[in-house]
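>> received
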Amino acid sequence: MNTTATAASSATATAATSAPASAASTRTPENPSAQLGKDDFLKLMVAQLQAQNPLEPTSDTEYIAELAQFSQLEQTSNIAQSSEASVGDQRIAQAVQLIGHKVSYLSPSTGETVEGSVQSAEISPTGATLTVNGESGVEPSRITEVA
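>> returned
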């Protein structure tokens, strides 16, 4: 990164931190999760390009290296999202395959082992749960045995 861009960004950060306390306390954070995404990276790159010294521009190799890092970051992020979706799909498929099977599971209310037949699987955004002998909300992770 160019030192001029770093100086400009630190000057911006200093200006932001020296704002009156009343204004800072009423603002909501723009990035409450404190994670940088693709858009944030592009904003930083544009700020760097705007703040660079025209007499000493960033070399082509530095710019290409930054673009390569951005591309790699984007691909890694896409792979992670695909993996998460795949794991969720596998868990749902496993829960559906248990329908009609006799299972033993640890009861969430009593902690005792209960046996019964899986009657249905409920799919929600948080995952899959089973209904075993009329008791709904049995998580597949609580199953200890399948017959």
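>> The domain at 38-48+59-147 is CATH 2.30.30 (SH3 type barrels.).
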